[in-house]
Design brief:
This protein is of the alpha+beta class. It contains ten helices and nine strands. It has a five-stranded mixed sheet with strand order 6-5-7-8-9, sandwiched between helices. It has a four-stranded antiparallel sheet with strand order 2-3-1-4. Helix 5 runs parallel beside helix 10. It is elongated and about 70 Å long. The N and C termini lie far apart (about 45 Å).
Length: about 260
């Protein structure tokens, strides 16, 4: 069957046991998930490992804004397989450093961030423009989100940015609505009005219209406010409107993650 919801249970319950009976070896795998580095750069960083691999093997999988590495070892038993995986996992963690957000296959980026917020007993709010609520919607997919997410602001227009969260008119006029400065003020305003310890501000040109020579379509500025400290990054994403918005969300979630370490 084509639908994964039907195929996966059939493979796991019927096919895998047969394959195990036909093999004298055991396959053991692990996952290392990386965010903040593109696929080509990530592969370049471990090209030497891939070129000389035999057992275990490393297989990269490109995800939206992420790269996942599956490490697979063939061994006589599971314990021996885990022993083969361990040094490879440690080497990947060493090379990618804080770009690694989890080694748990079932853990998503948003689950990682919600877990960190709960662990540190922090609350979060957001002011979103081009993402239109997609950032908070993504975080709400994670269990426990209700413990940390307070509220959000959809400030799509300049008036909403000024009236709802206090972005200064002079800032917009001087730097433009899509700018590092406005993103910082959005994050600050969301934190102050939402009474949260962590806040995100997102403003950008998702396309297909809008954009300028200095800030073409795909330009997104994201501000992150954490306990009185605010910083921001400027991104230029490629792709259609949907992809730009989704990459903006991944980048914003990753900014929160890094700020909590």
């Amino acid at each position: 069957p084509g639908p994964p919801s039907e195929m996966i249970p059939m493979v796991e319950s019927k096919v895998v046991p047969i394959l195990k009976d036909l093999s004298s070896d055991t396959l053991v795998s692990a996952m290392v998930k990386v965010c903040g580095i593109g696929e080509s750069m990530a592969e370049t960083m471990i090209l030497d490992l891939i070129e000389r691999q035999s057992n275990p093997t490393i297989a990269p999988y490109a995800k939206l804004g992420e790269v996942h590495f599956r490490i697979t070892a063939r061994a006589k038993n599971e314990e021996e397989g885990k022993g083969l995986l361990r040094p490879v996992i440690e080497e990947l963690k060493k090379r990618f450093n804080d770009n690694v957000y989890t080694c748990e296959e079932s853990t998503t980026l948003e689950e990682c961030v919600v877990s960190l917020l709960r662990e540190k007993e922090l609350t979060l709010t957001a002011a979103e423009s081009c993402t239109g609520g997609l950032f908070l919607s993504c975080l709400i997919n994670a269990s426990g989100a209700s413990d940390v997410i307070k509220q959000g602001y959809i400030t799509y227009s300049e008036e909403a940015k000024m009236n709802l969260i206090g972005v200064k008119k002079e800032t917009i006029e001087k730097y433009g609505v899509v700018s590092i400065e406005v993103a910082k003020e959005m994050a600050l305003g969301a934190a102050n009005h939402g009474n949260a310890e962590v806040a995100i501000g997102i403003t950008g040109f998702a396309g297909p219209g809008g954009g300028t020579k200095e800030n073409p379509v795909g330009t997104v500025c994201i501000g992150c406010w954490v306990k009185g400290t605010v910083y921001a990054n400027r991104f230029v994403f490629s792709g259609n409107r949907e992809k730009v918005r989704e990459l903006s969300v991944v980048s914003a979630i990753d900014m929160v993650r890094r700020s909590l370490y």
